Amino acid sequence: MKTFIYLILVAILITVTSCLSYDLPSVESSSQKDISNFGFNYRYLDTIINTDAHADTLVEVAIVWITSGMTISNDTIYMTPQIPSSSQLPTDQLPYLNINNIWAFADISDGATIESVENAPKIGTRGDYSMPVSYKVTAGDGTSKIWVIVTKPFS
Asked: What are the angstrom distances between the C-alpha of 40 and each of 65, 98, 103, 116, 129?
């Protein structure tokens, strides 16, 4: 009986996963190499006091999304980050919030890849954006474009 159930589950799994590539557009030959969105977040360790008698104090990584103005001009993206409100970021974290201690993310064209150029921080890691940084976006067809990110200090 266990074997029969196992075979049924495997058959269902194969059927479901095989349709994932059906009718999807091909992006392997796409020449698109754009950054359509660039943004930042700030992360810190947050202590949570649990009032449950059976649980300990918990420590978690808190993520605060930073609202930023963004202007794209040719191959340059100008970022204007804003200090989060006190409801989003505890006041004891404000001294640590600056543009050389934030994490970045980017939305790029389908089928493209992104990599740091020279000393730019890797996307998804903490980095310093106090000076212009560059990223190379490579399209599915292998062509690439260098993007420059210019970030103003927090306002």
From this structure: 6, 11, 5, 16, 10
